[in-house]
Design a protein that fits this description.
The complex is a heterodimer. By secondary structure, chain A is mainly alpha-helical. Chain A has 3 helices and 2 strands; from the N terminus they run H-H-H-E-E. Chain A has a two-stranded antiparallel sheet with strand order 1-2. The longest helix of chain A is centred in the first third of the chain and has 11 residues, at about 20-30. Among the domains of chain B are: about 5-245, Alpha-Beta Complex (Amidase signature (AS) enzymes); about 305-370, no CATH class. Chain B is built from 17 helices and 11 strands. Chain B has helices at about 5-15, 20-35, 45-60, 100-110, 150-160, 175-180, 215-225, 260-265, 270-285, 300-315, 335-345, 350-365, 365-390, 410-415, 415-420, 425-430, 455-469, and strands at about 40, 70-75, 115-120, 165-170, 185-190, 210-215, 255-260, 290-295, 395-400, 435-440, 445-450. Chain B has an 11-stranded mixed β-sheet, sandwiched between helices. Chain B is globular, with a radius of gyration of 21 Å. Classes of the chains: A mainly alpha, B alpha/beta.
Chain lengths: ~80, ~475
């Protein structure tokens, strides 16, 4: 299997990414970038929320449990990790 | 033309010309009989229950205001507690939201009634609404054409009048472009103005929550409700409510408008759109607006920069969707690795898989320095250019898309053309700038962009154009 599929955890034999990789050449060719005046608009580090555990209410908990893909009685079934 | 559909409906409800139950029944019937495939789920029972409550309040003398009693649509990438939220994907086809997105909760708390979860491209991956496990949403004005995307269903519902407003998501143009294809208003607010909490993440650094509506005032009213800081989204900003009642219907002479030459001269731009755009500019000049031509990055560079960053972020964001704690899991596989491979292989569409795999390539050794970090550097350059441009002009006007809505099926054969069709929208997303897509003169709408946090100025200017052209 293709290494990128393994890295992505996706089986996708039919997928072709060659059109997207054309963008790589475009970005490599960009020259003389002037970044003077740019500001980071994403996250300010002085804006962190309090680091404390917030428990969900019973209704939310029930919905989270309902979404679990496999159950046996009260146990949640996960794939085998250790062979 | 009505100044506010929301206000018109509330007047009828307050005067008891129609009941809220009747209103919601009419909207649900319209959604159910629509042939556009714009909805993944119709919330009839819950909506009618809410409508009944509003009728009781009206009967006891309450006068509706704000967005009380108004039915609205929600793109199916927002969590709405207790309802199925699929992101138009197989992997989440049975996923039930454990909580409600902040923006949607604010609308509900303000009295609006969610009536449907709307069709969209899977996880926002697309510009035509063809990448949906529920099938394509058709254009509101032509059944053979796409609705646009990724928030196609939301735009179609508003264009058909089946929702009074709808909430879409815009990462690289996903509100603005379908607004254009369906000839309604669609706003991408300043990045951070509206909380992203409860929106399924595509590209966290440019995902925005925004409304579709049929009037500028309705866009402003719904934006006011959703805006504000949220402790659950660290990127949110404090904002001042927009004073909708003080909007002036006259275009202010001396307003300075910038036009990017590289956009208008691009060979992909359809001649009809170019002619319309130039005609709008002439009309604005007659009203005393000053026009300034500006240089800008070319469309190909903007598209490449956006997609490289978007692919990297979506590969990271969607890595959590693996069928272990939620989502449809491929059962009885030999080991964990095969469970992941088949769960994600079967659960995601071809386009979504393409983006995740390409995103992992972008982030892999050898590419991250040369490609991803370079794209981040170009993004800074784009932000710097915007900062400079908005010292010279009040707004930048541009077409929303270089292309007319494609015929259904065309874009699936040629994804690159679909990506390049985003060239006029993605730059403003990279800059985090507010941009309104407005149905003024130009086929497929015109974009009005301003500096960060100038959402109100855009809506004031757009209202003046809406009322005077």
């Amino acid at each position: 299997m293709d290494k990128l599929q393994q890295l992505s955890n996706i089986r996708a034999e039919e997928v072709n990414i060659s059109k997207i990789t054309d963008f790589f050449e475009t970005i490599k060719s960009v020259k003389n970038i002037n970044i003077e005046g740019a500001e980071n608009h994403i996250v300010k580090s002085d804006n962190l929320r309090e680091d404390k555990v917030v428990h969900c209410n019973p209704e939310e908990k029930a919905l989270i449990m309902e979404n679990f893909p496999a159950k046996q009685g009260t146990y949640l079934v996960v794939p085998k990790v250790i062979q | 033309m009505s100044q506010s559909i929301i206000q018109d409906i509330q007047n009828k409800l307050n005067e008891k010309k129609i009941s809220c139950v009747q209103l919601v029944r009419e909207k649900i019937a319209a959604l159910q009989s629509s042939t556009k495939n714009a909805n993944n789920l119709i919330l009839d029972e819950q909506a009618l229950e809410q409508a009944k409550i509003w009728d009781e309040k009206i009967a006891s003398g309450h006068i509706l205001s704000g967005i009380e009693g108004i039915p609205f649509g929600v793109k199916d990438v927002y969590l709405l507690k207790g309802t199925i939220s699929t992101a138009s994907s197989n992997i989440l086809k049975n996923y039930k939201s454990p909580y409600t997105a902040t923006a949607i909760q604010k609308l509900i708390d303000a009295g609006a009634i969610p009536i449907c979860k709307e069709n969209c491209d899977q996880f926002g991956h697309g510009s035509t609404n063809e990448n949906s496990v529920f099938g394509v949403a058709k254009n509101a004005h032509n059944d053979d054409k796409v609705a646009g995307g990724s928030s196609g269903g939301s735009a179609v519902n508003v264009a058909e009048g089946n929702t009074v407003f709808s909430i879409g998501g815009d990462t690289g143009g996903s509100i603005r472009q379908p607004a254009g294809y369906n000839k309604v208003y669609g706003l991408k607010p300043t990045y951070g103005r509206v909380s992203r909490y409860g929106l399924m993440a595509y590209t966290s650094s440019s995902d925005c929550v925004g409304p579709f509506a049929n009037t500028v005032k309705d866009i402003a009213t719904t934006l006011n409700v959703m805006s504000g800081k949220d402790g659950k989204d660290q990127t949110t900003l404090t904002s001042t409510p927009i004073d909708v009642e003080s909007f002036d219907s006259k275009i202010k002479a001396g307003t300075k408008i910038g036009v990017y030459k590289s956009f208008i001269d691009h060979p992909s731009l359809e001649s009809k759109i170019k002619t319309d755009f130039n005609s709008l500019i002439e009309k604005l000049k007659e009203k005393g607006v000053e026009i300034k031509e500006l240089d800008f990055f070319d469309g190909d560079t903007l598209t490449a920069t956006y997609y490289i960053i978007a692919l990297a972020e979506t590969a990271s964001n969607l890595s959590r969707i693996d069928g272990i704690a939620f989502g449809n899991r491929a059962m009885d596989k030999e080991n964990l690795a095969l469970t992941y491979l088949d769960t994600r292989g079967e659960g995601f569409s071809q386009e979504t898989k393409r983006r995740i795999i390409a995103g992992n390539q972008v982030l892999s050794v050898g590419y991250s320095e040369e490609i991803y970090k370079k794209a981040l550097e170009v993004r800074k350059g784009i932000e710097a250019k915007f900062a400079k441009d908005f010292e010279e002009v009040d707004f930048v006007l541009s077409p929303t898309s270089p292309l007319l809505p494609p015929t259904i099926g065309e874009s699936l054969k040629d994804p690159l053309t679909m990506y390049l069709s985003d060239m006029y929208t993605v730059g403003f997303s990279l800059g985090g700038l507010p941009t309104l897509s407005a149905p003024f003169v130009v086929e497929n709408n015109v974009q009005i962009t301003a500096a960060k946090e100038k959402d109100e100025e855009i809506l004031r200017f757009a209202y003046a154009i809406e009322q005077s052209l």
